[in-house]
């Protein structure tokens, strides 16, 4: 199936000007389509005129250069004592949830064979860089989740490139969050008010396809995202598989000029399970192999960079079902918890809460 593409332009044209009840029937329907896609598939594609192909390309070019730097250079930006929440996370550190979660493993065995994910045999083979986007809270119980950024030497364009692309993507996500709230029948700032001063992370990953370019290689094992919403620009190498709410496995194809949105665990919490955190993996497929061959012919980088941003609920805000979702029969599965406390619990499970 093809994921729906939602053009944000009509909503952007009136954003900030009209209150919820004054939206035109067409815009109300568009918000309904967006929220329905998040509920039913855990994903959707959006077009935002503020996020250009050129912006994404400039960002990926810089990250390809960074990830192709020597190992000894990259680990200078490693901050394990801060739970890897700023700077670089080397390959073979982050453990995919499906490798250690026994309940998840049982569910996977019950899936039809054609929908089952690849089975991880160890930590992920991807590198990742975390760069904070947006203001941090002046006073927080979760300092390590709101640490100062790490800038590698030799990249004078680093801060401007990271901030420029990161702010554009978080702006797109804020519009999606507002439209989703309207579609769910909540006040339009129900989500965005909780996102203020959240530990949003521009989080590009880098996978070395010269080293790990064999078909079937798992670059990022089957997992969900622990944050609120995740957004990706188009990667130069295919390989992302997602699972719809009905259990169907879909290989994602992001059209040029589009951004991919995925639901995280925090929106699942806030909607009392009406939205479910989307499961996904990144694997070398036959389409990845074709892209590798083309890149070799064109003498381009063989690092697969994901242009990813994780939007979070503010660390000191409380996660709990909102509005009518508090009355849901599933709401008891989502007791109130501080967002930062929840994130720390998840990081401990996937091996990012410092060295073991």
From TrEMBL:
Keywords: Iron, Metal-binding, Oxidoreductase. This is Putative isopenicillin N synthase. GO terms for molecular function: metal ion binding; oxidoreductase activity.
């Amino acid at each position: 199936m093809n994921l729906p593409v939602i053009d944000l332009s009509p909503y952007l044209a009136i954003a900030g000007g009209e209150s919820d009840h004054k939206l035109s029937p067409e815009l109300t329907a568009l918000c309904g389509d967006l929220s329905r896609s998040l509920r039913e598939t855990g994903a959707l594609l959006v077009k935002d005129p503020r996020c250009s192909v050129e912006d994404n390309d400039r960002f990926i070019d810089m990250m390809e250069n960074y990830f192709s730097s020597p190992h000894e250079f990259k680990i200078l930006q490693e901050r394990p004592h801060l739970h890897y929440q700023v700077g670089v996370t080397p390959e073979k550190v982050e453990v995919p949830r499906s490798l250690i979660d026994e309940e998840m493993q049982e569910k996977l065995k019950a899936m039809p064979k054609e929908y089952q994910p690849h089975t991880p045999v160890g930590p992920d083979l991807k590198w990742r860089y975390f760069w904070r986007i947006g203001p941090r809270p002046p006073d927080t119980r979760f300092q390590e989740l709101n640490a100062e950024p790490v800038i590698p030497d030799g990249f004078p364009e680093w801060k401007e490139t990271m901030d420029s692309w990161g702010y554009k993507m978080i702006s797109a996500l804020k519009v999606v969050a507002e439209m989703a709230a309207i579609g769910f029948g909540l006040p339009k700032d129900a989500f965005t008010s909780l996102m203020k001063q959240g530990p949003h992370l521009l989080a590009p990953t880098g996978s070395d396809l010269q080293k790990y370019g064999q078909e079937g290689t798992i670059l990022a094992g089957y997992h969900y995202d622990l944050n609120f919403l995740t957004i990706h620009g188009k990667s130069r190498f295919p390989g992302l598989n997602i699972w719809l709410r009905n259990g169907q496995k879909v290989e994602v194809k992001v059209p040029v000029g589009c951004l991919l949105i995925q639901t995280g665990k925090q929106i699942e919490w806030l909607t009392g399970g009406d939205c479910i955190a989307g499961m996904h993996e990144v694997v070398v497929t036959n389409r990845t192999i074709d892209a590798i061959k083309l890149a070799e012919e064109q003498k381009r980088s063989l690092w697969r960079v994901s242009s990813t941003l994780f939007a979070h609920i503010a660390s000191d805000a409380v996660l709990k079902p909102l509005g009518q979702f508090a009355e849901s029969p599933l709401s008891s599965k989502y007791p109130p918890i501080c967002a930062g406390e929840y994130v720390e619990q998840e990081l401990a499970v996937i091996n990012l809460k410092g060295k073991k």
